[in-house]
Amino acid sequence: MDATAAALLGAGFAAIGAGLAALGVGNVFASFLEGALRNPGAADAQQGRLFIGFAAAELLGLLAFVIAVLLIFSN
Fold it and tell me: Which residue numbers mark the site Reversibly protonated during proton transport (predicted)?
């Protein structure tokens, strides 16, 4: 396998991380909604943690996208 094929294969694997980040964001919001419906009084206190979890999941997705782009265009 030559270097170009390996880079494109690695970029494809890195792109999977962007899709998994979308699942992570969905999981963060689903957990927040489940907790907010069980205890509505605590929802306001947990909203900051919701946005931190959202930002962390999106950061991992963007990082996977940047790595994929770097692998594609590095040759």
Answer: 58
